[in-house]
Design brief:
This protein is mainly α. The longest helix has 23 residues.
Length: 794
C-alpha cells in the first residue's frame, strides 16, 4: 500500500519541484515539461520518494522561468472607444473573402499559417515574423510594433499606400488575391485596429527586467541533451571533462564526441527513428497492411509469419535506404532521385504485383487459373526470400512485368542479384514512390494525388502549397477549373497544385499501381520561386533535390526533432547551418555534427532564434524516452554482466504507456509533438516504471542489478548510468544523497506516527520497514520518474 501511494503521481511531484517559483534560479528557460504539473498533479499525501528527489531539483535546477516584470499599460494609451476593434476588422476580412483561407480550419494548409479567425489574433500577430517565404521574408513582421507602416498585414491589403511592399527580395501577392481591393475606409479601420493592438497588447517592461526570459544553458545540460538524442546512453565523466570546464563550453570538443557517437549502433537506431518521422514512413498498421497497393497480398495475417515479414520490410525499406545514404556520407538529396532500391525477393514480388493496373487480390494475373496463381499464400516463396536483402536498380519500362505462372515469377525475382537492373513500369524513383509513403497518404478519385504532391513537398522542402506563394504557374493546362474557379480564392493554390499532381496521376492509378502513361496534359512544377516543365517523376525528384529550400528544410527538421520547436530561419546561425550543409555535399552526418554542437541547439549562447522561441525543456516523447531507457539498462547489464530482461515500453507500439511519439498531420509541415506533462502522462510514466521495478533487483540470475551489492555501489550506478549524472556533475552528490535518503526511509523499521509524511523528515527516524530489495525499488522508481530521464534539455 505504501508503495502504491508513492507510485500514483511521483513523476508529477518530481516535476512540480522543477516548476516551483518560490526558489531562486539562475536561469530562465521555459520548461513546458513542468508548466502544467504543479497545478494538475493529484493531491497525494507526502508518501512519495519523489518529494525527496524534487528537493534536488529545487536546489540545483536551472530551468525555472524568471518572467520579466510586466506593468500595466496606462489607460491614456488606449485608443478611443469609437476606433475600430477586432469585430469590425473581422467583418472586413469576411466581406472581402479573406476568411476563406485564413480561418481556423484552413489557415495552416492554404492560408500561409495566418489565422484571422481568433479574438487573440492581434496579440498573436504582434511582432510575429512571417512563416512563409523562406529566408528573404523571414524578417517581415505581420504587425510591427516599432513601425506600424512596416506591418506586413497593411502592406498586403494596400500595396499602393505602403510603398515598401515588395521593394526587397521578399515578394508577396497583395491580398485579397481575387476580387476588389479593400476600400480606403476599410484599410483605415484595419490600421486603427493595429494601433489599438500595439497600444494594448505590447507590454511595458520594467527598465531592469530582461527583454527576453533567456539565460545561457548549463553546458552540462547541453552535452546530456545531445547524447540523449543521438545515442540514448548516459554521458561519461570523460565526456563531461572534455566538453565542459566550469561554466565554459567547448563546441569543438562536442563535435568530436558526436563523431564518436556516430560510429555506434545507438546512433544508427536514432537516425532511423528520425528518418522514419521526417520521410513520413510511419508504420502502416499490420491489421490493414498494403491493401491499396497490393490487395490481400499486402494484408497481414497474424498467423502467417511471412505476411508480417513482408509488411515490416515494406515499412522499413526506404528508411534503410536513407540510412545507407547517411552512413556512407552520400549527398542526402538522393532521397528524392534514387532508383536504387534495397529489396528482398518478397519485396520484389510485391513491387511486381503492383505493375498491373487491375489485379485480382492475391493473384498475379487474373487470366491465369487460380490454382496456378496463389501468390497470396506464398506457396512459391521460401523463408529466405524475406531476408535476402540486396540493392537493385529499378529502371523505367513501357510495359509491366509478365510471367506465365507464380512459380516462375518468384524464381525470376529471386535470381536478381545485388546491383542488377530490374525493369518495371511503375516509376520507382525517390521517397515519394516508396510503398510506405504512398500507403500512408493514399489518394482517391476525388483527391487525385493532391495529397501525394503536398506531402512530397512537406517531406523534401518543409513547406506546402499556399495561396500566398507568388510563384507564377506555367499556364492553365491541368488546372481543374470545375474544382477551383479562377474567381475564387481556392484557385490560388490549385494553380500550383493541379499541374504538379499530374506527375503522379499520369503514371499510376489511385490505388498506386502502374498504368499506361497518359501525358496528354504534361505536368509542371511551380513552387516557392522555382518553375519548370516536367516529363516524369524523375524530373519531379530532381526539382525537389535541387530546390534552394532543400538544405533549409532539413535544418528545420532537426530543429523540430532536437529542440521540440522550429528555429528562426532569419537567424544567422540557422542560415550558416543550411549553407554549411549545402557546401559540404549535403552530407547529413556533417549537418548533425554542426547542428547539435551549435548554440541554436545547446543554448550556450543567445541566438536570434531564442529571441522568438524561448529555449524549451520538453517532455521526452516515447521515440526518445523508450530508446534511452532500453539503452541505459543495456549499458548497466553489460557493466554488471547480468542476464535480466526488462521491457518498460510496449514492444509493438514503441511507446511508454500513453506517452506519444513525434507524429504527422496531413497538410502540416510541423511535427506533432507533445511537449508538456499532463496528469495522465505522469500517471502513465508512474505505472510503467512501477511495473518494471521488481525485475531490476530480482534475487536470481534474471536481474539487471544485484541487490547484494552495497547501497553505495547501487545508488552510484543508478545515478551515473541510468539517470546520466557522472561523478563530476554538479548535481551528482545531492542526487546520490537524496536517493540514499529514499532508501533509508523505505528500509527503516520504525513505523511513522499516524499523519506523518515519512519523506518530510529532516533526519530519518521512521519509515516503511521494507527489505533491502524492496527498498531499492523505491530508489529505482524515483530515478525512473526523474526529470533527468523524462525530459529533454533539463
Amino acid at each position: 500500500m505504501k508503495l502504491t501511494l508513492m507510485l500514483t503521481a511521483a513523476c508529477a511531484l518530481v516535476l512540480a519541484g522543477c516548476a516551483g517559483t518560490s526558489e531562486p534560479s539562475s536561469s530562465s528557460h521555459t520548461t513546458s515539461t513542468t508548466s502544467q504539473v504543479a497545478s494538475s498533479a493529484p493531491a497525494i499525501s507526502s508518501t512519495s520518494s519523489s518529494r525527496a528527489v524534487s528537493s534536488i531539483v529545487r536546489s540545483s535546477s536551472s530551468v525555472v522561468s524568471s518572467t520579466p516584470v510586466i506593468s500595466s499599460v496606462a489607460s491614456s494609451s488606449v485608443a478611443a472607444p469609437s476606433a475600430c476593434r477586432f469585430d469590425d476588422v473581422k467583418k472586413i476580412f469576411t466581406d472581402n473573402n479573406c476568411m476563406l483561407c485564413h480561418n481556423a480550419q484552413s489557415f495552416g494548409a492554404i492560408g500561409g499559417g495566418l489565422n484571422l479567425d481568433s479574438g487573440n489574433v492581434g496579440a498573436n500577430l504582434l511582432d510575429r515574423t512571417t512563416s512563409f517565404g523562406g529566408v528573404p521574408c523571414a524578417d517581415e513582421k505581420v504587425i510591427d510594433s516599432s513601425d506600424i507602416g512596416n506591418s506586413l498585414l497593411l502592406k498586403l491589403i494596400d500595396p499602393n499606400r505602403y510603398s515598401d511592399f515588395n521593394a526587397g527580395s521578399c515578394k508577396r501577392n497583395p491580398m485579397p488575391q481575387t476580387g476588389a481591393r479593400l476600400k480606403p475606409a476599410e484599410v483605415n479601420c484595419v490600421e486603427q485596429w493595429i494601433e489599438h493592438v500595439i497600444d494594448t497588447e505590447n507590454p511595458t517592461i520594467e527598465p531592469n527586467a530582461p527583454s527576453k526570459p533567456f539565460a545561457v544553458a548549463d553546458p552540462a545540460s547541453a552535452l546530456i541533451k545531445a547524447k540523449y538524442l543521438l545515442s540514448g546512453s548516459a554521458i561519461t565523466q570523460q565526456e563531461l571533462n572534455a566538453v565542459v570546464s566550469g561554466s565554459n563550453f567547448d563546441p569543438v570538443a562536442l563535435r568530436e564526441k558526436i563523431t564518436d557517437w556516430q560510429k555506434t549502433p545507438n546512433y544508427e537506431a536514432k537516425m532511423k527513428s528520425f528518418l522514419k518521422q521526417a520521410l513520413q514512413m510511419e508504420e502502416i498498421p499490420g491489421s490493414f497492411g498494403y491493401r491499396y497497393q497490393l490487395g490481400n497480398f499486402g494484408g497481414v495475417r497474424s498467423n502467417i509469419d511471412n505476411h508480417r515479414a513482408l509488411w515490416e520490410g515494406l515499412n522499413n525499406m526506404f528508411v534503410e535506404m536513407a540510412w545507407d545514404i547517411v552512413k556512407n556520407d552520400q549527398r542526402f538529396n538522393r532521397i528524392a532521385t534514387t532508383r536504387r532500391w534495397k529489396v528482398t525477393t518478397a519485396i520484389l514480388v510485391a513491387l511486381g504485383y503492383a505493375e498491373k493496373e487491375n489485379q485480382t487480390p492475391g493473384r498475379v494475373y487474373s487470366e491465369l487459373p487460380a490454382k496456378e496463381d496463389r501468390l497470396q499464400l506464398f506457396e512459391h516463396l521460401k523463408p529466405s526470400d524475406f531476408t535476402d536483402w540486396r540493392y537493385v536498380n529499378i529502371v523505367q519500362s513501357d510495359t509491366p512485368i509478365r510471367y506465365a505462372n507464380t512459380a516462375g515469377y518468384a524464381a525470376t525475382m529471386r535470381n536478381y542479384k545485388h546491383n542488377d537492373e530490374v525493369e518495371m513500369r511503375f516509376p520507382r524513383v525517390g521517397f515519394f514512390s516508396a510503398p510506405a509513403f504512398l500507403e500512408l497518404w493514399v489518394t482517391n478519385d476525388g483527391n487525385q494525388f493532391r495529397v501525394t504532391a503536398s506531402q512530397s513537398l512537406i517531406t523534401a522542402l518543409d513547406a506546402t502549397f499556399s495561396a500566398s506563394d507568388p510563384t507564377a504557374h506555367r499556364g492553365e493546362a491541368g488546372i481543374d477549373l470545375d474544382h477551383a474557379d479562377p474567381s475564387t480564392v481556392c484557385y490560388q493554390c490549385h494553380r500550383l497544385m493541379d499541374p504538379m499532381k499530374l506527375v503522379f496521376s499520369n503514371f499510376q492509378t489511385t490505388n498506386h499501381r502502374s498504368k499506361d502513361v497518359d501525358n496528354s496534359v504534361k505536368p509542371s512544377f511551380a513552387f516557392m520561386g522555382v518553375r519548370s516543365a516536367m516529363k516524369n517523376p524523375d524530373d519531379f525528384g530532381r526539382l525537389l533535390a535541387e530546390h534552394p529550400r532543400f538544405p533549409i528544410a532539413w535544418v528545420q527538421k532537426l530543429c523540430m526533432w532536437g529542440n521540440s520547436q522550429r528555429c528562426s530561419e532569419a537567424d544567422p546561425e540557422f542560415q550558416r547551418l543550411a549553407e554549411s550543409f549545402k557546401n559540404n555535399n549535403l552530407n547529413f552526418n556533417h549537418l548533425v555534427r554542426e547542428f547539435f554542437s551549435s548554440p541554436i541547439f545547446t543554448a550556450t549562447q543567445k541566438m536570434e532564434t531564442h529571441e522568438k522561441n524561448e529555449y524549451l525543456v520538453s517532455i521526452s516523447r516515447s521515440n526518445h524516452l523508450c530508446h534511452a531507457l532500453d539503452t541505459r539498462l543495456a549499458d548497466i547489464k553489460a557493466t554488471n554482466n547480468t542476464k535480466g530482461s526488462v521491457q518498460i515500453c510496449n514492444k509493438n507500439s514503441g511507446k511508454l504507456g500513453i506517452i506519444g511519439k513525434d507524429g504527422l498531420n496531413r497538410g502540416d509541415a510541423d511535427f506533432v509533438q507533445v511537449k508538456s506533462v499532463s496528469t495522465f502522462d505522469a500517471q502513465s510514466i508512474d505505472s510503467q516504471c512501477a511495473a518494471a521495478r521488481s525485475k531490476i533487483f530480482a534475487n536470481s540470475d534474471n536481474r539487471i542489478i544485484d541487490s547484494r551489492k552495497s547501497i553505495n555501489d547501487i545508488v552510484g550506478q543508478i545515478t551515473q548510468q541510468f539517470m546520466g549524472l557522472p561523478e563530476n556533475h554538479s548535481r551528482y552528490n545531492k542526487t546520490v544523497n537524496e536517493l540514499k535518503r529514499v532508501y533509508n526511509i523505505a528500509a527503516n523499521g520504525t513505523t511513522c506516527p499516524s499523519g506523518t509524511n515519512a519523506f518530510d523528515q529532516s533526519s530519518v527516524s521512521c519509515g516503511f520497514g521494507e527489505s533491502k530489495t524492496k527498498a531499492l525499488e523505491y530508489v529505482w522508481f524515483a530515478a525512473c520518474t526523474s526529470p533527468e530521464l523524462i525530459s529533454l534539455g533539463f
